[in-house]
Amino acid sequence: MRNLSFPFIALALMICAAITPAQAMPPIQQQTLPNGMRVLLMEAHNVPMVSMKLSLPGGSRFDPAGKGGTASLLADMLSDHTARHAHPVWDDLLDADAIKLGAGVGRDDFSLGLTVLKDALKPGLDAFSEALLQPGWNKKRFAILKQDAIAAAQKAQEVPGVRAAQAAAVLLFPQHPYGHRPGGTMKSLARVNLGNLKSLYAAQIKPSGAVLAVSGDITMAELLPLLKARLHRWQGKPAKGLMDISQPAIVAGKQADVTLPTTQTLVQLLRLGPSRSDADFFPAFVLNHILGGGGFASRLMQEVREDRGLVYGVYSYFQPLAAPGPFVITLQTKADQAKQAEAVVRHVLSDMAAGHISSKQLKAAKENLTGSFAQRMDSNRERVGLISMIGLYNLPLDYLSRWIERVQAVTLAQVKAQAVKYLQPDAWNRVRVGPKSAF
Amino acid sequence: MPLRLMFILSLLSSCFMAASSASAGGGKLQEATFKNGAKLIVEEDHSAPVAMVQVWLKVGGRDEVPGKTGLAHVFEHMMFKGSKKLAAGEYSKRIAAMGGRDNAFTTTDYTAFFETVPAARVSEVIGMEAERFAHLALRDKDFQKEIRVIMEERRMRTEDDPNSHMFEELSAVSLRLHPYRNPVIGWMQDLKKLTIEDVRAFYKLHYVPGNAVVVVVGDVDFKQVEKRVAATFGKMKARPIAPRFNPTEPEPFGPKRIEVRLPAQLPMLAVTIPVPVWKPGHNDIEAASLALATHILSGGRSALMSRELVDKKRLAFSVGAGYDEASMGLDLWYAYGMLGPKQTTAAFEKGLWALLNHMAKTPVSAKRLAAAKRNITADEVFAQDSLYLRAKRIGRLEVAGIGAENRDKWLQAIGRVTPADIQKTVARWLRRDRSTTGILTPEAKS
User: Fold this and answer.
1) Separation of alpha carbons B176 and B161, rounded Å
2) Distance CA A162, CA A156 (A)
3) What is the Cα–Cα distance from A70 to A76, expressed in whole angstroms?
4) Which long-range contacts (CB under 8 A, 24 or more apart) does B349-356 make?
5) Across the interface, do B104 and A2 touch by the CB < 8 Å criterion?
6) Nearest CA-CA distance, residue A248 and chain B, Å
7) Contact status, residue B36 vs residue B238, Cβ threshold 8 Å
8) CA–CA dist B7, B1 (Å, integer)
9) What pLDDT, on the 0 to 100 scale, is given for residue B26?
10) What is the per-residue pLDDT for B49?
């Protein structure tokens, strides 16, 4: 691959809200179950399959202090077995019908996902609701999952990006619930016990505020009775809602270096970005596309890779969460070139902050963003990701159909104002991972 | 973690399934071959106003000569560095302006360039693809910059990733002749010596219309696309096609093993075994049995390797195995285990062979086989959800010499496999005396 696909995936899943042209896009249908869970559906009848994802405020920000990875282990446990079906039997049961069931966590959200063939929808929903409502809490399985999670966390210490993300979370979110990676660390995972999982489950895994995003070969009329029959016993409101979170304090000019015996140095510049509900979300989004979110069309890629050949990839993204999340610029280069590459990035930042953004660049960014609408939503998996984001963060249901119009409406003055707000080089922090010689 | 495929898989999204596209939802394939040997395959799908255009070349790492590894992959970069009509970087800018996304990938067997675009722009994109294919600029100035980018790519992917580094070494030791022994990105020593003359010679020899297969999946009309490809790729002057390097790998004389010492946190053990690829009409049951055996070992939730080696015996914390029936010549089957701090490579290795030997002696249960078949079939349907995967399956079958027209026969073969077939195939191919074992030993805490 010539491009890093990660930034594109990240874009599609986290930042952007992409769409299909308004005239071709099926609407998002909404129904609310009596227990408060919202069901958002986009029909797509071209492939005989159904994908869905339940999202609710139960992510890593709800991990008890010092026990990072609790929510992640809860996700592992809920999909591993249930009160009715022990571990190996449960796996056989799901595989017999090709039921793809999995749980995961982000900083804000806990999610439970299901992908099934249309003809396995009923057993799929049975499994989905059983995993959600009848946790098994098997002690032996917990011990195994925990031990393997700790080993995986140790293995992940070999990965420069993981080391950077760990350092970045600590640096950017001191004393804040966003201040650790969702998967936790070897140390924090070691402190987690089964009781922590049970408490988190009891406090947060509730239908009120939860969103079930569905895409596939099904109608609301078919889906609702199936859901009601399985989820009617699920009741209640989470102890903390999605928006019950403090604003992270602003951190600027901080630095952290992590020594790793690699040939390259990973350089990350970081600061707080906009939250999901930021009034200037779209101007900031377009700004990032011009800066480093637009792949080969972005300023950073042009300056650092195309003009100087310093990196394979350099990109920027921000992660809009309930509160301001991280805004990240990241690159990897041969250790002795790290300072040069960083200087180029800082120059681009100050240049853009000084207002050097052309109407031509803005036009190109808008063309790319609006034109690529359709393909960012051309699979059930992508649609479910976007719809669940819309539901969880309570964005309007016409968010997708108005997305192009909102991108189009962004003016050069707005983008420049966002550049002044976000791109001042002094406001960024830095994490480096690499050999000692590079620091 | 696949070996040479790891190169691609690490980047493409995790949903990649090596298996085939299918009658299980796959549309009709329409084909055209032009006088100069260029070929077009179209699968119409009018469910969304988008299309995937992929240009597949029967050119890859296997077509490099010794000392020039990495050359095929250089084109993945140089194809974006300008042609007669387009300045360097202009290609991607135009695709971006039409709201498209472009990219490329290279393996030992092929090079592919692709764009996802609004359906109305397909004709324009085919024109752009043909123009750069026939009139690539190949300026030394651009090459000097790109080769540095490629070295950074190699540092990031291989040098600084102990697992991937180990797999590279293991592949090199596993095979004596077959080109899967060389990394697609090239050995660093070779990259440092490549010149623009090497690049130009490779281009002249291999970028010929008879090596090109254009695959379009999406909201298009076959007749219109056919006209367009006839007027572009089909119009190019016919040129001789260089024969592909596809040697017969000598049979192993016994087990081999290597140890790779690198800065790492935890050890890993991997095993490779050369196995046959799918030749439709010749070895359908054998290839399908290998695919099913591999799925039973490492696919789905009930995978035997996780159940036996991770959950029951606690010999590793993460395991996997892989087989690709659409490789060329042979496939390097693999299995691996990531070991936790108190787990040993010796115990894992013993457990892995006990499991494989058990499969060679005892038929798998009918229930287990049925679940594996059901999951492979379901994965085919799920893959229909992605234009990218659909086009990719078509292109791969075509460049591997299997033929896209055989696409639906794969699931039929899967359906016919019996427990006895799996037992026989495992006993015949997945043998220790044919294997190479690689051990990653952490030499210092990374």
Assistant:
1) 25
2) 6
3) 10
4) B349/B269, B349/B271, B349/B437, B351/B308, B351/B309, B351/B313, B351/B315, B352/B269, B352/B271, B352/B305, B352/B309, B353/B432, B355/B297, B355/B304, B355/B305, B355/B308, B355/B309, B356/B426, B356/B430, B356/B432
5) yes
6) 32
7) yes
8) 10
9) 64
10) 87
Q: Mean pLDDT, to the nearest integer, of A28-40?
A: 97
Distance from CA of A403 to the nearest CA of B (A): 14
Supply the pLDDT for residue B446: 53
DSSP A135: B
Q: What is the mean pLDDT of residues A17-30?
A: 61
CATH superfamily of A7-231: Metalloenzyme, LuxS/M16 peptidase-like (3.30.830.10)
The pTM for the full model equals: 0.93
Q: How far apart are CA A298 and CA A364, in angstroms?
A: 10
Cβ A79 vs Cβ A130: under 8 Å? no
Surface of A (18-57) touching B: CB under 8 A = 20-21, 24, 44, 46-49
Per CATH, the number for B28-235 is 3.30.830.10
For residue B28, is pLDDT > 60?
yes
Q: Are A128 and A115 in contact (CB under 8 A)?
A: no
The secondary structure element, H or E, covering residue A52 is strand A49-57
A43 DSSP β-pair partners: A216
CB contact under 8 A, B371 and A20: no
- Say what the ipTM of the complex is: 0.92
- The full set of domain ranges for chain B reads 28-235, 256-442
pLDDT tens column, A350-373: 999 999 999 999 999 999 898 887
Tokens of B178: 């077959």
Chain B: closest CA distance from residue A91 (Å):
5
Question: What tokens does A134 get?
Answer: 């009848």
Condensed to tens digits (0 to 9), the pLDDT of residues A319-345 reads 999 999 999 999 999 999 999 999 999
Closest Cβ opposite residue A155 in set B15, B266, B300: B266
Identity at B340, one-letter amino acid code: G
pLDDT above 70 for B5: no
Alpha helices, H only, B89-241: 90-97, 122-134, 140-154, 162-174, 188-191, 196-206, 222-231
pLDDT higher than threshold 80 for residue A22? no
Task: Specify the DSSP element, H or E, that contains B296.
Answer: helix B284-298
Q: Quote the CA–CA distance of A53 and A51 in Å, as a whole number.
A: 7
B386 contacts in chain A (CB < 8 Å) = 378-379
Domain B28-235 identical in fold to domain B256-442: yes
d(CA B316, CA B269): 10
Over residues B207-263, the pLDDT tens digits come to 999 999 999 999 999 999 999 999 999 999 999 999 999 999 999 999 999 999 999
Q: Do the chains contact at B145 and A306, CB–CB below 8 Å?
A: yes
Counting residues of chain B whose pLDDT is more than 70, the rounded percentage is 93
CATH homologous superfamily for the domain B256-442: Metalloenzyme, LuxS/M16 peptidase-like (3.30.830.10)
Tokens of A221: 């009329």
Is B160–A44 a contact, with Cβ atoms under 8 angstroms apart? no
The DSSP H or E segment spanning A433 is strand A429-434
CATH placement of domain A255-438: 3.30.830.10
- HSE of A79, CA atoms in CB hemisphere, 13 A: 20
Determine the 3-state secondary structure of B442 from DSSP.
strand
Matching residue, tokens 């995993």: A131
Chain B residues within an 8 Å CB radius of A301:
none
Domain boundaries of chain A, sorted by first residue: 7-231, 255-438
Kindly state the average pLDDT of the residues A160-167.
Answer: 97
Longest dimension (CA), chain B: 64
Could you please report the per-residue DSSP string of B419-434?
HHHHHHHHHHHS-GGG
